[in-house]
């Protein structure tokens, strides 16, 4: 499991792209992971054949945990049947192997472990949350502490990953009473989710305090429980949330609890920008190789407005306001499996061409799971565009610790009353969209937010046609 960022301690292996016996090339994606920052495809550190899979789909493990092994010796034979993970959902260690023996033998590269191309390492498969390599000799059982066998096995079960322990604590589940499917009976995330989905009563669940922090990072619900617990009915389908869905849930609830949300709306005329775009589109795309959409014009106008109203590009720290000097614009990208907000850093220093290139690159890599965690961090202002799906307007939730988010509705042609050349009213077809600005009323007054949105409106409606 790779280290995807300094603050990330664990990841969920969400999907295997290869199976035991498959040949892989160096840097070819072999599995997908989900963290609390980003989803990503992980490439093979070496060319070879998948010899063994140690972590099943849905398993959450600590970074640097060995998740698979690649046979790198040319022509080596791999026994797929012996190496395949057990069907019961275990971590895939062969029957009879303990944690230290699972690392032995051969010219194999540990995926997610040592450096690519280096000599094979004798790494033990440690429990994900222990953070320590087991030092027992190959073939020896793990050392048992003083005490009876039952207490030792119970300690192994309860020494699960941090995420499993948090889920158990939030739902009042005693891990010591469960028989897990992991190594030495360790309870895995899949075990505890199946236990909860079955509707089994958890000892101590009723005693959990009403104010338990379900919104804390790592939780599964994203908010406090109110009213009776929800249980599945006969015929219902129960699917655990993905890691990304859990994080979105948590962040949205935390944001609503943190900021005093207010939303204002304005209608903006895109007729001029539409004409400029149509005039220069062919030459722009031929020169830059980039598709020219409306979004770069919106980002450019928003940055200009942020300069004029710096409170919109700030964060709250206790009773202080931090005015950000960088203009890092997050742009929400809808994915089939959730939502990501890659960040265009220092957007104020980019031309329209530069913004377009950065936007298209980030959006493309978000959809192919090629983003790094740093590329979705440190945004100072966010723009979301539900209008591409036909939505006229909305009230988006602020992305913490930012204080405002701009929502873009559908850009479409509408009949509008405008002033003619002689001052008379006339009806014309104009290209328009409704924009919304959700802002934190703790530090931003409605007048300031409306002035900011009016500045965005003016910038778009008077965008200069100076050749783009």
Describe this structure in words.
This protein has 9 helices and 19 strands. The protein is an alpha+beta fold. Strand 10 and strand 11 form a beta hairpin. Helix 7 crosses helix 8 (352-367) and helix 7 (295-308) packs across helix 9. It is globular and about 85 Å long.
Kindly summarize this structure in a few lines.
The chain is of the alpha+beta class. It has 9 helices and 19 strands. Residues 76-109, 113-153 and 201-223 have low confidence and may be disordered.
Mean pLDDT reading: 78
Question: CATH homologous superfamily of the largest domain, by name?
Answer: Chloramphenicol acetyltransferase-like domain
Please write the CATH class name of the largest domain: Alpha Beta
Element-by-element helix/strand order: EEEEEEEHEHHHHEHHEEEEEEHEEEEH
Strand fraction equals 15-25%
How does the major sheet shape up?
Answer: 7 strands, mixed
Kindly name the structural category. alpha+beta
**Low-confidence residue ranges:** 76-109, 113-153, 201-223
Number of distinct helices: 9
How many separate domains make up the residues?
A: 3
What distance separates the N and C termini?
A: 44 Å
The CATH topology label of the largest domain is: Chloramphenicol Acetyltransferase
> Quick one: how many beta strands?
19
Radius of gyration (CA) equals: 27 Å
Fraction of helical residues: 10-25%
Question: What are the salient characteristics of this protein?
Answer:
Chloramphenicol Acetyltransferase, single chain, OB fold (Dihydrolipoamide Acetyltransferase, E2P), four-stranded antiparallel sheet, seven-stranded mixed sheet, about 25% helix, 3 domains, about 20% strand, alpha+beta, about 475 residues
């Amino acid at each position: 499991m790779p280290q995807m960022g300094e603050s990330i301690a664990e990841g969920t292996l969400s999907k295997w792209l290869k199976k035991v016996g498959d040949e892989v090339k160096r840097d070819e994606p072999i599995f997908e992971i989900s963290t609390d920052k980003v989803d990503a495809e992980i490439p093979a550190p070496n060319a070879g054949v998948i010899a063994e899979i140690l972590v099943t789909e849905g398993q959450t493990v600590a970074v640097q945990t060995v998740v698979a092994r690649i046979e790198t010796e040319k022509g080596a034979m791999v026994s797929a049947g012996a190496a395949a993970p057990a069907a019961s959902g275990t971590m895939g260690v062969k029957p009879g192997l303990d944690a230290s023996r699972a690392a032995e033998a051969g010219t194999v590269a540990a995926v997610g472990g040592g450096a690519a191309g280096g000599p094979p390492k004798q790494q033990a498969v440690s429990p994900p949350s222990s953070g320590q390599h087991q030092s027992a000799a190959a073939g020896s059982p793990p050392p048992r502490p003083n005490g009876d066998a039952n207490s030792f096995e119970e300690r192994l079960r309860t020494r699960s990953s941090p995420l499993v322990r948090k889920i158990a604590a939030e739902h009042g589940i005693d891990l010591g009473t469960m028989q897990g499917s992991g190594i030495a009976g360790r309870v895995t995330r899949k075990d505890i989710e199946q236990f909860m989905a079955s509707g089994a009563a958890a000892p101590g669940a009723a005693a959990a305090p009403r104010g338990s922090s379900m919104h804390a990072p790592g939780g599964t619900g994203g908010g406090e429980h109110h009213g009776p617990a929800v249980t599945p009915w006969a015929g219902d389908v129960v699917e655990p949330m993905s890691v990304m869905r859990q994080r979105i849930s948590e962040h949205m609830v935390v944001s609503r609890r943190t900021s005093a949300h207010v939303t204002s709306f304005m209608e903006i005329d895109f007729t001029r920008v539409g004409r400029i775009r149509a005039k220069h589109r062919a030459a722009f795309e031929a020169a830059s190789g980039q598709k020219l959409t409306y979004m770069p014009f919106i980002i450019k106008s928003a940055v200009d407005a942020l300069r004029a109203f710096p409170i919109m590009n700030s964060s709250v720290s206790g009773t202080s306001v931090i005015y950000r000097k960088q203009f890092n614009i997050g742009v929400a990208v809808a994915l089939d499996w959730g939502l990501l907000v890659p960040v265009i850093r220092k957007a104020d220093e980019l031309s329209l061409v530069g913004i377009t290139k950065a936007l298209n690159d980030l959006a493309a890599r978000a959809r192919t799971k090629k983003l790094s965690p740093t590329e979705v961090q440190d945004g100072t202002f966010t723009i979301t565009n539900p209008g591409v799906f036909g939505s006229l307007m909305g009230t988006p939730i602020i992305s913490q610790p930012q204080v405002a988010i701009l929502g873009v509705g559908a850009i479409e042609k509408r009949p509008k009353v405008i002033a003619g050349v002689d001052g008379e009213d006339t009806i014309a077809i104009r290209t328009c969209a409704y924009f919304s600005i959700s802002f934190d009323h703790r530090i931003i007054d409605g007048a300031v937010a409306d002035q900011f949105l009016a500045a965005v409106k003016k910038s778009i409606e008077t965008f200069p046609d100076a050749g783009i």
